[in-house]
From TrEMBL:
Residue stretches making up the MARVEL domain: 10-203
Record-given protein name: MALD3 protein
Annotated gene: Marveld3_1
Keyword Transmembrane on entry: yes
Source organism superkingdom: Eukaryota
Compartments reported by the entry: Membrane
Provenance organism: Rhagologus leucostigma
Taxonomic lineage of the native organism: Eukaryota, Metazoa, Chordata, Craniata, Vertebrata
Length: 215
């Protein structure tokens, strides 16, 4: 009916489009954060996958034997445990950034801002708070990762794998972690844009509600 059409019209507004972009970016942050965490990796992870991974990485890391193999396994596990809290925190933040715009979209579809215009000011405030809070969160994310990569565990692990001719175990940020940071900046800017759109829509709703009183 006409009510359903009015609800669907919200999804065509600029504010809804911005919120759907926020959902997409937050989902990508979640994926990149999970990649950053990874598995136990290296000597213990890839051979267990079997098949193409087994042969691609030299028959279950044939370069390792005896004490070197045990040391590689220990370093992999310790490195994984060092990164795990950071990855979990990043995934939790990504999940929150994903849920919030979904809730706001639902609120818009249900036309809550039309019946309760003050919600738009509340929404604006939440957007600003989250956008500003994203900056120290990104600092903590990269600062913690760099601390892990500068640790003695990572350095020893890197040297051990390089001594056997294996590449890809460098102590530096990888693509998924850099992408997560860039996406975090993008979502912060999108939130600030949504805050501005919420203020604009509040003025529009307020003006439209005042019109019947002027007749």
């Amino acid at each position: 009916g006409s009510l359903e059409r009015r609800r669907c019209l919200y999804l065509q507004t600029g504010r809804a489009c911005c919120q759907m972009i926020e959902v997409l970016v937050a989902a990508l942050i979640l994926v990149c954060s999970s990649v950053s965490g990874g598995s136990a990796g290296g000597y213990t992870g890839l051979p267990a996958l079997g098949g193409i991974y087994y042969y691609q990485y030299g028959g279950a890391y044939s370069g390792f034997s005896g004490a070197d193999g045990e040391r590689a396994q220990q370093l992999d596990q310790r490195f994984y445990l060092l990164k795990l809290p950071i990855a979990r925190a990043a995934m939790a933040v990504g999940g929150c950034l994903l849920v919030f715009p979904c809730v706001v979209i639902l609120v818009g579809v249900l036309r809550v801002p039309w019946h309760f215009p003050a919600w738009l000011l509340i929404e604006c405030t939440l957007y600003i708070v989250i956008a500003v809070g994203t900056m120290p969160a990104l600092y903590y994310f990269f600062h913690s990762l760099l601390s892990v990569y500068n640790s003695s565990v990572c350095k020893e692990r890197e040297q051990l794998y390089q001594s056997k001719g294996y590449q890809g175990f460098w102590c530096s940020l990888h693509g998924a972690e850099i992408a997560a940071g860039l996406l975090g900046c993008m979502v912060a800017m999108a939130y600030l844009l949504s805050a501005g759109l919420a203020v604009r829509d509040y003025r529009t709703v307020h003006e439209q509600k005042q019109k019947p009183l002027q007749l």
